[in-house]
Design goal:
By secondary structure, this protein is α/β, with parallel strands linked by helices. The protein contains 9 helices and 7 strands. A 7-stranded mixed beta sheet has the order 1-7-6-2-5-3-4. Helix 7 (166-174) crosses helix 8.
């Protein structure tokens, strides 16, 4: 049954993307940028609905009250493609730092350009950081919310964290709050996997880390609070009535936390 539901959801997911991009393209490109956000946010909401109805996975988001007004940095855990869009409906005017190759994709790249995202060349690390800081400053000055994945790439649930210094550098440069987000989406939408598992995708938006810390202290705090919350969510899922299959990294982490699966 999981295979069939996964096949149906994956098909619906990509059809949803293609159909919405075609149908709503005129409205999207003719509307002012802030008004045009209704299209990507509606796409995100519809994906969450499709995953709930077809695959049986429903998000449970705690801590929405911790999202500040105005500009801030949003720093979600990165476990899955799911977390690239799931928080979009709750963020007023987000801007993503992304690899420039995405802007070369026909139509999709034009959608990105419309929203004034920050493309960087990952192959040139020094230039990429300068471009990221420059674009981040412009976004914050425009009262937007900067989306940064502190580990830079997707990591399996329970895997040892590898937070990169780039988020600390940008934190020090911008002087705005950083909102950590913990979740366990990788258990239900695993990276590089076809299967989509049913259950409750637990997410926790944590209290903002205020500006003013030195960069090293900030990075340590960001990692500590995010990983502690991820551990709690992992344990809650493992102890639920019908947990998804646990990857080896999650099994090992649960053992370290004193939980047998």
């Amino acid at each position: 049954m999981t295979i069939i539901r996964s096949l149906l959801f994956n098909t619906a997911f990509y059809l949803n993307l293609i159909i919405q991009m075609i149908i709503f393209t005129p409205f999207y490109f003719l509307s002012p940028r802030k008004q045009a956000w209704i299209i990507p946010k509606n796409w995100a909401k519809s994906n969450l609905w499709l995953q709930k109805v077809i695959a049986g996975a429903e998000p449970l988001i705690e801590g929405l009250e911790n999202l500040p007004d105005g500009p801030y940095i949003c720093a979600p855990k990165h476990q899955s493609f799911w977390d690239t869009y799931a928080f979009l409906p709750h963020i007023a005017d987000p801007v993503y730092i992304l690899k420039r190759e995405l802007t070369w994709i026909p139509l999709f790249g034009w959608y990105i350009a419309k929203m004034k995202m920050v493309p960087i060349d990952r192959g040139r690390r020094s230039a990429a950081m300068k471009a990221a800081v420059r674009g981040a400053r412009d976004a914050i000055a425009d009262n937007r919310q900067l989306m940064i994945y502190p580990e830079g790439t997707r990591t399996a649930p329970g895997a040892p964290p590898h937070y990169k210094y780039g988020v600390a550098h940008i934190y020090g440069e911008l002087g705005v709050p950083v909102v950590p987000i913990a979740h366990n989406a990788g258990l239900f939408w695993p990276r590089r996997k076809f299967l989509r598992y049913p259950g409750i995708i637990r997410c926790r938006i944590l209290p903002p880390i205020q500006p003013g810390l030195d960069n090293d202290a900030f990075l340590k705090k960001l990692e500590e609070v995010t990983e502690a919350a991820c551990d709690e969510l992992l344990i809650a899922t493992a102890k639920s009535d019908n947990p998804p299959p646990m990857p080896p990294t999650a099994v090992q982490r649960l053992k370290e936390l004193g939980v047998e699966v």
